[in-house]
Every structure is written in C-alpha cells, then in structure tokens.
Amino acid sequence: MDPGDGRWLRRYSRPTEANAAAALVITLLLAACSGTPAPSIYFPTYGSMNALPVGVLEGTLIEESGCLWVDADGSRWLVLWPSSARAVEADAGLVVRDGTNEEVVGEPMRLGGGEYGMNNYDFVVDLIAEEVPPACGESGQFWLEYPSD
C-alpha cells in the first residue's frame, strides 16, 4: 500500500470503537486521580533552582491551622513544594501529589531536600514569591522538598 495514494490515511486515521473506549478510560482515570483542590491549605511552591539540597527528612505529614507540616520527633518543618505538586482532597483524605508520588496527611513519609531556618527567611520568601503566613512560619523551620528515591 502506497501512503501517497490516500488509502493508508483512510485506513489508519479513522477512530475506532476501541480507540474511543481507550480515550474514555484514560479520561476517567485522569479525573479520578486529580482530586479536588484543597484551597484552604497554605501550599507554598517554588520554581526551578540551579542547585538543590540532598538531605532527607522522615516524619509525618500533618495539617494544622491551614498549614502542611512534617512532624519529625516533635520538630516541625513547613514544606516548600516543587511547582508541580498539588494538595488535593481525595478518597484517602488530604494528599499531596507530584507526578506518581503521593503523600497522605497523617501518614509517615520521607522527603528529599534540605532545611532552611529563619536566618534564611529572605531566601525562602524570594523562592516562593510570597510572605509566609505567621501561623505557618511559627516554627522557623522550612523544608525545601526535592524528590529523592
């Protein structure tokens, strides 16, 4: 079959029932995975950076006073998430999704990244392009989340 004679285009460009069914399944899966945005949560994000920290923080993701914290042995860090991350309401409750990663509020988690204290507050504000609400910055500890495996 010569692609230039038009039969190739007619044969392979027609939508089929299988293609339509596959498109419907993909659409439904994407809708189910997206969740409902969690607008009442303060969710600071950052854009690209030239260099990234390579530490690890293990703790429990908690929500309190509209802030998402990682609690590790009684110390709390406000997480600064990559711009690709989203906080959403899902079947599991409040979750943070970033690609295939999902962190659930109330469950243990492990985050790659690095710690910044109040002495780096100006850097944090520049990074997220906004002031941190007082209730969310009270610990004075910020964790720049960077995926690690």
Q: If you had to describe this structure to a student in words, what would you say it looks like?
A:
The structure is a single chain. This protein folds into two domains: 3-34; 38-145, OB fold (Dihydrolipoamide Acetyltransferase, E2P). The protein contains four helices and ten strands, in the order H-H-E-E-E-E-E-E-E-E-E-H-H-E. It has helices at residues 7-13, 17-34, 121-128, 134-137; strands spanning 36-37, 45-46, 55-64, 67-72, 75-82, 86-90, 93-98, 101-104, 108-117, 141-145. Strands 3-4-5-10-9 form a five-stranded mixed β-barrel. A four-stranded antiparallel beta sheet has the order 1-6-7-8, with no helix packed on it. The protein is globular.
Question: How do the strands and helices of this protein lay out in sequence?
Answer:
Blueprint: H1 7-13, H2 17-34, E1 36-37, E2 45-46, E3 55-64, E4 67-72, E5 75-82, E6 86-90, E7 93-98, E8 101-104, E9 108-117, H3 121-128, H4 134-137, E10 141-145
Parallel strand pairs: 2-5, 5-10
Antiparallel strand pairs: 1-6, 3-4, 3-9, 4-5, 6-7, 7-8, 9-10
Radius of gyration: 21 Å
Give average pLDDT, whole number.
78
Between the first and last Cα atoms, what is the distance in angstroms?
48 Å
Relative helix content? 10-25%
Q: What would you say about this model in short?
A:
This protein is an alpha+beta fold. It folds into 2 domains: about 5-35; about 40-145, OB fold (Dihydrolipoamide Acetyltransferase, E2P) (Beta Barrel).
Keywords:
single chain; 149 residues; alpha+beta; 5-stranded mixed barrel; 4-stranded antiparallel beta sheet; 4 helices; 25% helix; 39% strand
